[in-house]
Amino acid sequence: MKILVHMCCGPCSCYPVKKLREKNFEPVGYFFNPNIHPHQEWRLRLKTAREFAEKSDMKIFIDNHYGLRDFLEKTSKAVGKIFDEDTIKFSDGFHARCKICYAWRLSETAKFAAENNFEIFTSTLFYSIHQNHELMKKTAEYFAEKFGVKFYYEDFREGWQEGIDLSLQLGLYRQNYCGCIFSEEERFSKDIRKARKNFFTQ
Ligand code: SF4
User: Fold this and answer.
1) Which helix (H) or strand (E) holds 52?
2) Distance from C-alpha of 4 to C-alpha of 30, rounded to nearest angstrom
3) CA of 184 to the centre of ligand 1 (A)
4) N or C: which end of the chain has fewer CB within 10 A?
5) Would you say the CB of residue 97 lies under 6 angstroms from ligand 1?
């Protein structure tokens, strides 16, 4: 059976696509990530997603719209303080903006699946050890019901190291921050890292 696989990037697709094929699914990729900034990084991740699809002989659909402005508009009220202790308490690394980001990407995937005759969809986001897994699961289930398609759930995190090894074997570019400009700042700003460290050692 064909399954639409939302691809957050090339490296994160390696393990889920392998697992889905082992389960006799026929994965078809879908790149929709308006959360990735700046433009050169988005282009690089898109290129890598294409490269992965080509090397693994998988069909891919691509949304070519670079969504910085839409992303900022959608998340402007959820960005908050530079270091938001309230959302950090909920789960390390989780922010209110991520909730919007998950909903946007998963709803578009469910909608695309429904409009293009896919009965079922999933996402490589379920491979990430850095995301709020339970919230993404609930979100995907909600949009599956809304658009009348099925959501395939699997905890792909169990293949974290295998996925890294596969991406290295394929020579794929591996990014070092989640995607949005805020996550880039959080990854590289010494002040934010210091604030987080102080918060967790209080
Ligand atoms: S940190 Fe990642 S999941 Fe959260 S809003 Fe930014 S890109 Fe989206």
Assistant:
1) helix 39-55
2) 7
3) 10
4) C
5) yes
The verdict on pTM exceeding 0.90 is: yes
> What residue type is assigned to position 76 of the chain?
S
pLDDT per position as a tens digit, 108-164: 999 999 999 999 999 999 999 999 999 999 999 999 999 999 999 999 999 999 999
Query: Ligand 1, atom 1: nearest CA belongs to which residue?
Result: 183
- Residue whose CA is at the smallest distance from ligand 1 atom 5: 98
CA pair distance 180, 185, nearest whole angstrom: 9
- Spacing, Cα 59 to ligand 1 middle (Å): 26
The pLDDT assigned to 75 comes to 87
Q: Does domain 2-200 have CATH number 3.40.30.10?
A: no
Q: Are 8 and 104 in contact (CB under 8 A)?
A: no
43 contacts 67 by C-beta, under 8 angstroms: no
Residue whose Cα lies nearest atom 6 of ligand 1: it is 180
Backbone angles phi, psi at 64, to 5 degrees: -85, 5
Strand order in the sheet with 26-31: 60-62, 26-31, 2-6, 120-123, 150-151
Res 81 pLDDT > 70: no
Domain boundaries defined on the chain: 2-200
Q: Which atom of ligand 1 is nearest to the CA of 93?
A: 1
Counting atoms of ligand 1 from 1, which one is nearest the CA of 100?
5
